[in-house]
Amino acid sequence: MDKTTEHPKEDAPGNAEKPVDDWVTGEEPMTGAQASYLQTLSEEAGEEFDPDLSKADASKRIDALQEKTGRGA
Predict the structure, then answer these.
(1) CA neighbor of 27 nearest in space, from 49, 48, 50, 53
(2) Dihedrals φ, ψ of 22, to 5°?
(3) How confident is the model at residue 8 (pLDDT cuts 50, 70, 90)?
(4) Is the pLDDT of residue 58 over 80?
(5) Which of 5-14, 38-47, 53-62 has the lowest mean pLDDT?
(6) If phi over 0 gives left and psi between -120 and 50 gives alpha, with beta otherwise, what is residue 46?
(7) 23 touches 51 (CB < 8 A)
């Protein structure tokens, strides 16, 4: 099977490499998936969950909490 049809989002040029601050939709409310994962990470890290973060801020917070909890390794 062709890899591009197997994982189309992973194969999009620069898809995962675009800086969070350059996201066109970065100021929109975080997605449901982000909220769910961020809540889990916040609980594991013993930190407060902020349900009002933007997509971009949620992504940054997820990265920080993954590092703190060891989940991002």
Answers:
(1) 53
(2) -100, 0
(3) very low
(4) yes
(5) 5-14
(6) left
(7) no
For the stretch 31-42, pLDDT in tens is 999 999 999 999
Q: How many CA atoms lie within 13 A of 57 on its CB side?
A: 10
Q: How far apart are CA 67 and CA 7, in angstroms?
A: 26
Tokens (6 digits) for 5: 């049809």
Whole-angstrom Cα distance, residue 59 to residue 66?
Answer: 10
Closest C-alpha to 60, from 15, 11, 72: 72
Phi, psi of 46 (to 5 degrees): 70, 30
Q: Which residues of 28-63 are buried (b: 16+ CB within 10 A; e: fewer)?
A: eebeeebbebbeebbeebeeeeeeebbbbbbbebbe
